[in-house]
Amino acid sequence: MSSWQDMKIEIVLTENALKDMDRLDKDIAYRILSKLKWFEEQINPLYYTKNLQTNDKKVRFRVGNYRVIGIIEKNKVYITAVGHLREVYK
Q: Which 8-state DSSP code applies to residue 53?
């Protein structure tokens, strides 16, 4: 029997995350989207996340100097914010 850590996870960009992506340079946005797709294709994409201290269901993906913040719900990660590490946690 597999645990939630071995399940395929679907990554969903929220409206807020899409607005954040629009503000980024196109090359950076493409790099982040490519990396999110790579995470999604992995057997255990949550292996590449870190839990945020404020909430067990809130995680972050690291893409270079950028951070992608998401919330885990069942077999989906809803991306809520995308930004440079200096700005995304504010």
A: T
Per-residue pLDDT of the chain (90 residues; tens, 9 = 90+): 344 455 678 999 999 999 999 999 999 999 999 999 999 999 888 888 888 877 778 999 999 999 999 999 988 999 999 999 888 877
Strands (E) in the chain, as ranges, are 10-13, 49-52, 55-63, 66-73, 76-84
Q: Is 79 exposed, middle or buried (0-12, 13-18, 19+ CB in 10 A)?
A: buried
Tell me the whole-structure pTM to 2 decimals. Answer: 0.84
Residue listed under structure tokens 């990396």: 35
